Structure formats: structure tokens, C-alpha cells
């Protein structure tokens, strides 16, 4: 063994030469950094095999790098890019080691001297802060999407997460902070995403999608394919993955350690390439009466929320005046001040869904937003009771026909006037002489004095609290009726 390269056995020497030739010789369409990363990964995954030495591996990689530098023009690649590719390859190979086949197909024990349960790094493990250059956060969408980080969008199905992402992209393109996008989604782009972006007036040439072939094999662990797609798409500053759970490649989405192991290399890659990533996922189903912190709303492992530096939750506004309103609120922000909550509505324009923004709810926090009570809907009988109170404050006696005519004009049906809620009211119904019209007459002290007239009339009956009235009207900041102010 002393005569072999770096103390490596002849079998391992020949094996690594074969791997080097595999990556160095053919024109396989891969970039220089992709080749360096792939070669390093394939060698590192065999580092524990008998006869393999770290020094021998390093010498082979040095030789391969010299050939690659000549073939791919070293001057077009920075030393930082080369080191980043090698580091990523080492980490991937050591994280997923290949078993040594051994003789007759039997797996042999790895070389004890080369067994490494921890990642192997090249160069010193630390660096002085004085040797590092601080950088300002580059925001693509202030307070929501930043370069080098994962921004998590979470909400229930159908609330408009993807449409909001598209609308934010539309604005980013107009502002010139991005010039193209790589969108990795589960929906067929021809039927879903492309019609939507065209309906918003977005140039479809600015978007790239994975091919069916690439989508069938892509996983979040496959950073080599991610980089290849990113390069082919024009190196966009923004990548959208909708939803990330579709691309885990068998990793348990509820396992904290497994999810972190997938997301951490992605964050490193984003930082190295100055790319922002939006991951669009779902929220948990909320049990009635159970309050939760907004940061815990994301479905799956808590690592989804902790690994990202900013999170956006989408929840219904629960405004009875407009049930279509939703809130875009931030429960977590590690890069600055939490942005104000935004209100939006999905409307149809020229046959396509678009986002319509409303100026409201800016001071509502994420925790307040997700724990808002569901709007209490009044029944037709309750509506009829409130309407009859107003009529009988005007006069104590009405004919039945007068009430029916007035109720119809007010949008109340005949059935509403004969509902159980109305039947329970203290109203005397009679037909004098058993001939002519029927009369409805209020039995004092009903109806109650109106809240705004208390103390101004002769009656002393306190205002009646209807079954559908809120006990605590000041539920939300800035509101006085249990709901936000009118939009």
C-alpha cells in the first residue's frame, strides 16, 4: 500500500480514477460546479470502504480539479464557488454513505480508520469575524421575502396563498428587483399557474417550470438538480416551491430532525447563490374552542417554522360584512420588524382570479387573527325579531297585512314572521268580532327601549340583549362591534 497514491489500496485507486473519468471526460451538460459537487459526493459516499484513505481521496480530487479547470476554464469560476461545491458534495456523500459490496456480494465492515460519523470539512473549522464582511438584508418584498432565506407561506386550502405569491411576484417584476422566477409546483402549469399569471398581466416568459421528467425525480435533497434547473431558468433570484412536502423524497414531514436535515443545505445553497425561496404549505385544522399560537399553525414538523427566518400565515378575516376577506399576517420575523397585517380578497376579473387588497386590519397580530371567533350568523327568525322591535316602537298595534307588506319590502319572508322566534314574542294577535283584518298588538313592557334612547322616554325597561348579540363587542383592536371597522 505504501506505493499507492496517498496510502490507498490499488482497488480504491482504480475505483476513484473510474469515477473521475466518468465526470471529467464526457460532455454531460453539467456545469463545472455541478461536476465538482457530484464527483466529491460520489467519492465521499465511499470514504468508509476498506482501503480508502482521506489523503488519497484529496490527491485524486486535486488531480481531477486540474483537468476540470483546463477543460471548463477555471477563470470563469470563483474559488468560493468551487469550495462551496466541494463542501456540499462532502456533506451529501457523508450523510448518505454507500455500503461496501465486498466479495460475493456480501457487505463488509467499513475501514475503521476511515469511519466518520461526522461530516468532514476542508480547511479550518472557524474564521474570525474580522475576516468576514457583513451584508445588509436584501428584500425582494419588504418584511416578507428576503434573499438567502426561506419564506414560509401557510394557510388552508383555497384561501389564496399561491395567488398572493403570484401577485407579489407581479409587483417585484414591475419594481425590477427580480427578472425571472423558477416555480416548482404540484399543479400542471398549463392549466393552473400559467392562466393565473396571464390573468394578472405577468409575462409568461419570466417563469420557468420543471419538466415532467425533472419533476418525477426531483427532491429537496437533490441540490444538484435544483442548481441545474436554476441555471437553466436563467439564475432567478426567486424560487417558489408549492408545496415542499411533495418533494421530500420519502422524508417524514413530521420528523423535526429529518426536516431540518433537508432544509439546512437548501438555506446554505440559497445564501451562497443569493437566491430567495418561498415555500407554500398548509395549516393545521383548528379544533373548536382551542387557541393556538400562530407560529404553531404550520402543518407537519415544527422545523418548518423554525428553519425559516420569516413566516406568513393566511387566515379568513371572518368579517360578516364580507366573508370573502382574508388576512395575510406574520407570526415570525427574525430579520427585522414584523410587518403590518394585510387584508385581501380574491375576485374574478375577465374570467381570471386576481388579488384585491384592502386597507384594513394593519394592527391585528397573527395570534389575534388565527383566534378570531367565527362570525355568528343570525337566523331569519332573529332578523324578524329585530325588525319587529323597530316596528312596534313606532306604534303598538299593526294589522297583519301591514306587517306582511312592510316585511316583504324589508326583505323578510312570510315564514320569518311565523318563525318560532317571533311566536315567542309578547305579541297579542286577534281578529275583533271574528271579522275583518287581524291585528298584532305589543304587550308591555315589550318592545324594549332602543339602546340610543335609554332614559329619554317614559319607559324604564332596560334594553334587551338578543341571543345573537355579542357579549364582548370590543373583540379586536380598533373595532367596536366585534369585527374590524368597515372597509
Report helical residue fraction. Answer: 25-40%
Strand content: 5-15%
Question: Under the CATH scheme, which architecture of the largest domain would be assigned?
Answer: 3-Layer(aba) Sandwich
CATH superfamily of the largest domain, by name, is P-loop containing nucleotide triphosphate hydrolases
Topology:
Blueprint lengths: L9 H15 L7 H13 L9 H19 L6 H17 L43 E3 L3 E2 L3 E6 L5 H15 L5 E5 L7 H7 L7 E3 L2 H6 L5 H10 L5 E5 L13 H18 L2 E6 L21 H5 L2 E7 L8 E9 L8 E8 L2 E7 L7 H5 L9 H15 L2 E3 H10 L4 H4 L2 H4 L3 E4 L8 E4 L45
Parallel strand pairs: 3-7, 3-8, 4-5, 4-6, 6-7
Antiparallel strand pairs: 1-2, 8-9, 9-10, 10-11, 12-14, 13-14
Helix pairs in contact: 1-2, 1-3, 2-3, 2-4
